[in-house]
Amino acid sequence: MRSIFVGIFCFCSLLGFSQDLPEVDIIKAIVKNAQTDAPMESVHVVNLNQVVGTITNEDGQFSISAAVNDTLYFSYLGFKSQKIRVTNDMFKFENTEIALTELAYALEEVIVRPYQLTGYLEIDVKNLPINNAYQYSISGLSVGYEGGNKNPSAVTKVLGAILNPADLLRNLFGKKPNQMRKLRQMKEDDQIRDLLASKFDRETLMELLQLDKMDIQDILNNCNYSKSFITTANDLQILDAISSCYEEFKVLNRKK
Questions:
Q1: What is the DSSP code (8-state) at residue 59?
Q2: Using one digit for the tens of pLDDT, what is the confidence trace for 52-111?
Q3: CA angle in degrees (0–180, nearest 5) for 99-104-107
Q4: Strand, coil or helix: 109
Q5: How far apart are CA 154 and CA 179, in angstroms?
Q6: How far apart are CA 19 and CA 11, in angstroms?
Q7: CA 191, CA 233: separation in Å to the nearest integer?
Q8: What would the mean pLDDT of 180-193 be, rounded to a whole number?
Q9: Whether the model pTM is above 0.70
């Protein structure tokens, strides 16, 4: 009798819990230019909660999986990125309009020739800067590592990062465990990958991972990626770097 009562209680608890989960459905809307009211094509739309993405068609229309209270992130070159909270009304009315505001850019002075070139190839090659972001591969591991500037301790730093993960990494990865688990989902969504491959400002990456720019930089520094890589890589390369570092971090912690 007691086992039957416990079974009924567990079933009711599970039923109540499942009813609390938000229902995922398809939401449809239109993205327009706030200044001209014209529909905007190829705007990237990312559901930060479900970790799925899409782009608008030539009429500015899009559809995406979402639940009430999910956050949609809109991004388009030359326009201010925007976050919209999903409401019940957005499911009821398919023609919900989202307006993006155009940014005004002030062009700064650009130095075209920072290096004095003579026109003689042999001389100019010697004067050009050399990228010191050396890559190191370690037997048994399928990925390479950057050791920063070439120096006697570079390989030691790489090995140290792999064998003895820093407390800072543990704090950073532990601070947002749910976001870290979404890394694989981000990498598997083609629309999100395409968006990140075209961006260098870390803005979309910060929204997806719920980390600030300094946290991202600290992770890469402690995974021994070079300053050159951190400052010049696109957001997709940064995502792959963080993902690789996190996977190794999990393996090493499992062995402890």
A1: T
A2: 999 999 999 999 999 999 999 999 999 999 999 999 999 988 789 999 999 874 344 445
A3: 155
A4: coil
A5: 31
A6: 12
A7: 19
A8: 88
A9: no
Q: From CA 1, how far away is CA 182, in angstroms rounded?
A: 43
At residue 86's C-alpha, the angle toward residues 185 and 104, to 5°, is: 85
pLDDT of residue 211: 87
List the one residue out of 146, 131, 101, 154 whose CA is nearest residue 244: 146
Place of tokens 């390369």: 237
Where would I find the H helices in the chain? 2-20, 88-92, 121-127, 154-163, 167-175, 177-181, 183-188, 190-197, 203-209, 213-222, 227-232, 235-255
| Whole-number CA gyration radius for the chain | 24
The token duo for 143 is: 């990925």
d(CA 49, CA 181): 12
